[in-house]
Amino acid sequence: MSVISAFTQSALGDLKRLAFGPGVEPGSRKATVIAISARKGGVGKTTTTVNLGVALAQNHGKRVLLVDMDAQGHVATSLSRDRLDRPGDTLSTVLLEKRRDLQEIVAPTAIDGLWTVASDTNLHETETLLSARIGKELCLRQALKLARTHFDIILIDCPPNLGTLTVSALVAADKVLIPCDLSTLGLDGVDALFDTVETIQDSLNPTLSVLGLVRTRVDRRNLTMNAAIESTLSTRYAGHLMGSIIGISSSVPKAQLEGRSVLTSDPKSRGAEDHAALATEVLGRLR
């Protein structure tokens, strides 16, 4: 290597350390960031996040990061048997401190290719502190710069409200995936979220787009109600409605009780098949 080339490499290394902080280096990947968001609780948002992430890693060989922005911390609970905790700073610490990146606190799991950033008990307080800051909506986008270079897909489990953390997740995301149960309240939540996405597109993140609307917790026996809600969804959001349907399956809560994904707990179950089909469709839409 020539002296000039060696100097250039050294200078690039210095620039990277200045950009990302000490002890961390950028990777060679370029992740697509997907915010999984719903304005109504109980629609299976976290269940979708966890099992979609596992399916992408396990079935498609993707390097996936799950980021839990919901203070309830259900991502960690759903993967309690497969998570390999990593001591150190919390998500709140990284969001509140400038020039920090989530890559510093990612933790591996027992599932090859799947990593997590866990929620923490201080997130409610963190949201309050962030709300008083200028540029608060950009905190997560800044904190994902390095992590984006280490993963193929980053899934963000958003809180079920429109607070600072949810807005920051939508500003950081490339796509938003919207889970919706087949209920009147679920439909109202979808309408409200589409309005929010349009506002963020107009002001804070013009490249944000809706990846799809996925029907969740569907009781296939409730034919009349399902048909009425699906007709409305098809009329309002025909281009966004995904073909994959996540039905109610006893295998899913059983897996959650075990602290595992349904794809590892009961891979032949209907719940596992539904989420595997969703992962395949998501990749198809991303292409």
Tell me what you see in this structure.
- The protein is α/β, with parallel strands linked by helices and 287 residues long.
- It has one domain (23-282): 3-Layer(aba) Sandwich (Rossmann fold), CATH 3.40.50.
- Helices cover 46% and strands 16% of the residues.
- The protein has twelve helices and eight strands.
- It has an eight-stranded mixed β-sheet with strand order 3-4-2-5-1-6-7-8, with helices on both faces.
- Strand 6, helix 8 (184-203) and strand 7 form a beta-alpha-beta unit.
- The model is unreliable at 1-22 (pLDDT under 50).
CATH classification, class level: Alpha Beta
How far is it from the N-terminal to the C-terminal residue, by CA?
39 Å
Shape: globular
Number of strands: 8
Task: Give structural attributes.
287 residues, alpha/beta, Rossmann fold, eight-stranded mixed beta sheet, 12 helices, 46% helix, globular, disordered N terminus
Short note summarizing the structure:
The protein is α/β, with parallel strands linked by helices.
List the helices and strands and how they pair.
Blueprint (H helix, E strand, L loop, with lengths): L2 H18 L11 E5 L8 H16 L3 E5 L5 H5 L12 H6 L10 E2 L5 E4 L5 H9 L7 H5 L9 E5 L6 H9 L2 E7 L2 H20 L5 E10 L4 H15 L3 E7 L3 H8 L3 H4 L4 H17 L1
Parallel strand pairs: 1-5, 1-6, 2-4, 2-5, 6-7, 7-8
Antiparallel strand pairs: 3-4
Helix pairs in contact: 2-12
